[in-house]
Amino acid sequence: MGYKAHLTETCGPEGPNLITDVKTTAATVPDLKVLGSVHAALKERDLLPREHLVDAGYMGSKEMADRLARHGVELFGPMPRDGSWQVKAGEGFDALAFRVDWDAKSVTCPEGKRSKQWKPALNRHGREVVAAIFDKKECAQCPSRPLCTRSKTTGRELTLRPQPLHEALRKARTRQKTREFWEAYHARAGVEGTISQGVRSCGLRRSRYVGMAKTHLQHVITAVAVNVVRLLAWLAGVPRARTRLSAFAKLAPIGC
Ligand code: SF4
User: Fold this and answer.
1) Domains and CATH numbers, the chain
2) 175 Cβ partners below 8 Å, 6+ apart?
3) In angstroms, what is the span from residue 164 Cα to ligand 1's centroid?
4) Ligand 1 nearest-atom number relative to CA 110
5) Model confidence at 256, in pLDDT bands (50, 70, 90)?
6) 15: Cβ–Cβ under 8 A, 6 or more apart, which residues?
7) Distance 153 CA to ligand 1 centre (A)
8) Is residue 93 within 8 Å of residue 86, measured between CB atoms?
9) Which of 136-145, 184-193, 212-221 has the lowest mean pLDDT?
10) Cα–Cα distance measured from residue 169 to residue 46, given in angstroms and rounded to the nearest whole number
């Protein structure tokens, strides 16, 4: 029900964090559908970032590849987890464990075996994929089989998205395993404070008007008010507040 406000702001080490874009959508629109219009608007104002820190709702391999190709913007955020049983079990060979040679149309598994078939297909959502299929005899004799496939009758079959999407996914899932990623990602916490400021001081949570156009106007005026408050605080030398951590959160290792 209702609407969603999508806020983009600067997050440099110096100066105030200023809101650079405001989008209003129906609440049912998935977050990752908004980035195209956000970047188009930022480009018009010559405010496109090199890296855009976003939460998991805005991350997807297609969005990563599209944003980079169209506007040269690197999306930086946690990619939703792979839903395979290998990842859920916390062991086994997920897609990241395989090496893909796109030119040779071949995949090499962790045991060094090469796929026997490379079949372009459409998945159940009608999107292009490639099925890379390993030889069932080789898989049947493989000591790592319990970590790789549960099929009793066929070899491992790996479903790959097209190359740019696959590589974006690999890049995102690999980097989010590192401490450096989570340390850099902390800069995104500021926008949560912005939403809180909008809600607490400007009533952002409740639309005073009926309809998308007027609700968007309210969101824009709220953003202007937050920017003015921040600029005045900065000119007055008021330091930025630091993100508070609960006692429980302080116990958690970084990245959890
Ligand atoms: S089961 Fe097949 S694909 Fe998996 S590691 Fe063994 S040989 Fe490779």
Assistant:
1) 3-79+177-251 (3.30.420), 85-163 (no CATH)
2) 181
3) 25
4) 5
5) very low
6) 234
7) 13
8) yes
9) 184-193
10) 28
